[in-house]
Each structure stands twice: as C-alpha cells, then as structure tokens.
Write a structure and sequence with these properties.
100 residues; mainly alpha; 4 helices; 71% helix
C-alpha cells in the first residue's frame, strides 16, 4: 500500500468514525438501546473512535516507513479536525431532527 492510499483510507475511516456516535442509540454500537442516548455517551464514543483512528494512522505510518514522533500539537489539531469531521452527524442528530 502506498502513502496516498493510506492517507485516503485514514480520512475515509475518520469521516465515518466521527459520525457514527450520532447515528446509533446503542451504547458503543452493540450495547442496550438508550432512547435518547445521553450526550456524555456520545462524547465518550467520539473519543474512543478518535483513538481508534489515531491507532490506524499510526499502524499505517509504521507499515509504510518510519513513524514520526508526535507532540501535543499534533493531537490537539487532530482532535479538532476529528470533531469538525463529525459535524454532519451532529447536525443530523441535534439540529435537523430535534432533540426528541
């Protein structure tokens, strides 16, 4: 797998993962249904998905070549980007459909 494919794969997975917490009423996508699911659960799932995407990116970077050391700036910018990628799901859940 070359670098371009790896970058597009991580971006596609990040877009899907950032929106998943807003489209499911189940806890961690397999647990019992909660109607409506609390915002805290959605934030916890969003953090879990961000960690999984960071792990995928790190794995692909190590597989392609040498991993670069990342400072806090990388994780702060990546978290902001991940939250921004989840905006369509947030709009669908809270703004378009309403709270109920």
């Amino acid at each position: 797998m070359d670098q371009t494919v790896a970058v597009w794969l991580v971006l596609a997975v990040a877009i899907a993962a950032a929106n998943l917490p807003y489209f499911s009423e189940r806890l961690l996508f397999v647990g019992p249904r909660r109607a409506p699911k609390a915002v805290g659960w959605r934030l916890m799932e969003l953090a879990l998905m961000a960690g999984l995407v960071y792990g995928l990116g790190s794995f692909l970077e190590a597989r392609i070549g040498q991993r670069s050391p990342q400072g806090w700036e990388f994780y702060a910018a990546g978290t902001c980007l991940f939250i921004t990628l989840g905006f369509p799901g947030f709009v669908w859940r809270y703004l378009r459909r309403g709270r109920g």
